[in-house]
Structures are given as structure tokens and as C-alpha cells.
Design brief:
mainly alpha, single chain, 9 helices, 173 residues
Length: 173
Amino acid sequence: MRSRSGFDEFVAAHAAALLRAAWLLTGNLHDAEDLVQETLTRLYVHWPRVRAAEHQLAYARTSLVRCHISRRRVRRASETPVDELPESVAPQTDPDTRLMLSQALARLSPIDRAVLVLRYYEGRTAPEVAATLRISAGAVRKRAARALAEVRTHLPTDDSDLVTRSGGEHDRP
């Protein structure tokens, strides 16, 4: 049996942050929970190597994003729209605003959505996002600009800065 030394502590400390990022990537709580579970399973399998890594949380977030992109490629044909609102993860924001943003993000490709989540929600730099997604920093900036423009077309004009406000204190690219 593999050594679990430190794995339980890692999960206890970082599961909530991984779930928030997964919710932003997937758009609903149930898929986010599944994504986190799949990511943690993969981390557990490779835990001796992950435990030795300098930045375990960065490793986990990278794995989370890659799992999401991989799952979206496989599940794309089986997705169906739902009539119910997604469950709330971040109650401090207005539910209508969250729903509009979630719907706008759902229209993006998995990679563009990952770029926005990593860049603006996680607060990563373009080179960090590029390393995670294995694309160039220029591609990250270009994808972020196009994805933000696309998201803004689906939001009311008076909330055009919604993406920046939701992502925190980071400026637009």
C-alpha cells in the first residue's frame, strides 16, 4: 500500500480552494465535486512524487485544470442544459450576477474558461497560466482578451466590468 503521509493534511487544508476553482471551471457544484474527487484520486496515486514537490497546491491546481479539459473533451457530446440554477458556492455575490457570469463562462471553450479562471480567479500571471496549460504566454494573453470580450457580449452593458470585479483586484489584460 502506498504511503499516505501528509495526503490527508493536504486535502483538509486545500479541498475547499480546489472546489471553488472546480466550480468556476465546471459551472455547477456536482461536476465540481466530481472533478475535485478525480483530481485528488490522481494526486493520491502519485502522492510520493507530489509530496516531494516544492509547490503541492500548484501541482494540484494544474492537475485539476488538466482533468477538467480532458473530461470536457470526452463529455462534450453528452452535455444537456438544465432548468435549475446551479448551487451556490460563493454566497457573497449576487445570485443573478453569478448566474449570468456562469452562463457566459459556459459558452467558452474549456481552455478559454481555464485561462480566465486561472488568470483572474486564481490570480496567476500569464507565464504561470501558460506553464499550466502548456501554451505560450502570448497565447494566454490573446485567449484571455478574446474570452473576456466573449463573456462581455453576454452580460448587460452596465455590468461590463463584472469579470474584473468577480476576479478580484486584477486588471484586465
